[in-house]
Amino acid sequence: MLFDTFRTLALALAVTTQYAFAQRFYGPEDPRLQIQITTQNPINGVSKTPDGRIFVAYARVDGSTGPQIAEWDQTTNTSTAYPNEKWNSYSDGDDPATHFVGINSQRVGPDGNLYVVDKGATAIGGAVMFPYGPKLVVVDTQTNEVSKVYFMGNVTRSNSLLDDVRFNPITGKAYLTDAGSPGLIVLDLLTGNAIRVLDDDASTGATTAVSAEGTLLHLGSKPAFIYADQLELSPNAKYFYYQPASGGMSRIETKLLDQATYNSSLNSNSVLGLFVEPYANTPSTGGTAIDAEGNIYVSDVDSQRIIKIFPNSTMTLLVQDPRLLWVDAMWIDLQHRLWLPAAQLNRGIPFQGKNLEEAPLYVFSIDIGVGPSQIDHA
Ligand SMILES: *[C@@H]1O[C@H](CO)[C@@H](O)[C@H](O)[C@H]1NC(C)=O
Ligand SMILES: *[C@@H]1O[C@H](CO)[C@@H](O)[C@H](O)[C@H]1NC(C)=O
Ligand SMILES: *[C@@H]1O[C@H](CO)[C@@H](O)[C@H](O)[C@H]1NC(C)=O
Ligand SMILES: *[C@@H]1O[C@H](CO)[C@@H](O)[C@H](O)[C@H]1NC(C)=O
């Protein structure tokens, strides 16, 4: 109890003065972490179907080649290109409409299918291939075939980095973040119509570069600004939460995002921006997840910890362990375990110019005593 209070206080201090205190955590290890996957190549996203199939995204920031999306078999500890080799075999000159060009994220959607976000560029900050590079690809997990592709060429820009997706089955919308050209995208899943909202709003942009292990990151010679990146929908669909990777989480009422698809006056002259509320003073973040009670888990890539944000926006420490090196897109499974892919992305080629990742890498999990938010989850 005392210890918990101390931890909460220490965390509050560290979070409010994040730049002064942001530093690498060297130990001790936390025995609650269970190793789920041991891998030679970084995995920056993991998701599961209700019947336990596991899908992973390979970030390839270590310079390795091979599939970007794969199914992981825990009985043999091997992975297989998913949905097949062809989608995963893009090379120069291939049709971007029928290949994964450059995957940023993947997740099992509320319908049990796998949704893959393709930034449509072969590298972070690379040239976006219009119009069929940037897309949301739906793989039917029953037939293991691509069942639908939402092309995002009309709502992305040459500097876009289509980042991640969440779903609102009540209104049939999907929401995506653009980490390259600050903004959000609202996609109608039935019609395929999409609009951009909160373009260049303070809440989708970033005033500082992202940092990790206590060091500001660069892309080439420039500070690495990673705009609207992490996103979550509250379990009752009322709020949409989002933030740049460098932190500072905002929220907006989801209904306003949905209304902007048919009320253009809401989406002009920065009107939507007036409804944005600051939510939590989060640190530099690799990924998030939200549970059935509306608690948001945030991975602090500076200090190798996972912060839990209660719905009243109070932050507390869930776990800190030196092995939690750039935990990226997390996942909560039906067994109440939070999956933590420690991708070491900051040590990869895009940020370092060479590969400084230390294999093997791990996907951990930890019991959080609560299941996933059902609205966005199969
Ligand atoms: C598969 O990998 C996990 C995690 O590293 C390990 O605990 C398990 O023993 C491995 N299983 C086999 C069959 O090698
Ligand atoms: C972009 O919009 C135009 C006009 O509505 C449409 O014809 C075209 O198919 C769209 N392109 C993509 C890639 O969605
Ligand atoms: C459209 O949005 C504007 C700005 O918020 C609002 O004043 C107006 O009532 C809305 N119109 C409709 C039809 O919802
Ligand atoms: C916020 O919620 C948490 C969890 O329910 C609770 O422990 C805490 O006291 C609340 N803090 C405030 C300031 O209301």
TrEMBL record:
Q: What is its main location?
A: secreted
Give UniProt keywords alphabetically.
Secreted, Signal
Q: Return any one Pfam family short name.
A: MRJP
- A GO CC term? extracellular region
Q: Which residues form the signal peptide?
A: 1-22
Looking up InterPro entries in the UniProt record yields: 6-blade_b-propeller_TolB-like, MRJP/yellow-related
> Transmembrane ranges?
none
Compartment(s) of residence: Secreted
Q: Which SUPFAM superfamilies match?
A: Calcium-dependent phosphotriesterase
Keyword Ligase applies = no
What's this protein's family per the entry? Belongs to the major royal jelly protein family.
What is the recorded name of this protein? Major royal jelly protein
